[in-house]
Amino acid sequence: PNGPVTAIAEAAWQSDERILAGNSVAAFTPHVMERYGPVISILTFANCNVVETEEGLVMIDCGTKFAAPRIYETVREITKAPIHTAIYTHGHVDHVMFNHTGFEEEAIKRGDVRTRVIAHEN
């Protein structure tokens, strides 16, 4: 099918920079919608949840590469705790493309262990 969702998905897959414009879901612009105690929900094309623990942060379904800079900024506006674990619930591109760059750079500067990843083998 060649509908609007297909066009948006293809543009995202091809890293089309026009997808970044605007504030629609298609633009992958994340924002915090809710906070439930230690859980921070970041809404974007693929939602990302961050859980604050005594050891630091656990990130569940880390989002897209388009949203990565804003996810990082949003988390850092709320907490400076290090991320220690990333959980990928499944392998769809909209859930696994965030590469933790900002968090990894912080860990390296501190001399910390890098982010542990929990995911399916395939």
UniProtKB/TrEMBL annotation:
Originating species: Aplanochytrium stocchinoi
Superkingdom of this protein's organism: Eukaryota
Domain Metallo-beta-lactamase: 45-99
InterPro entries linked to this entry: Metallo-B-lactamas, RibonucZ/Hydroxyglut_hydro
Signal peptide (UniProt feature, chain positions): none
Protein name: Metallo-beta-lactamase domain-containing protein
Pfam families: Lactamase_B (PF00753)
Coiled coil, from the record: none
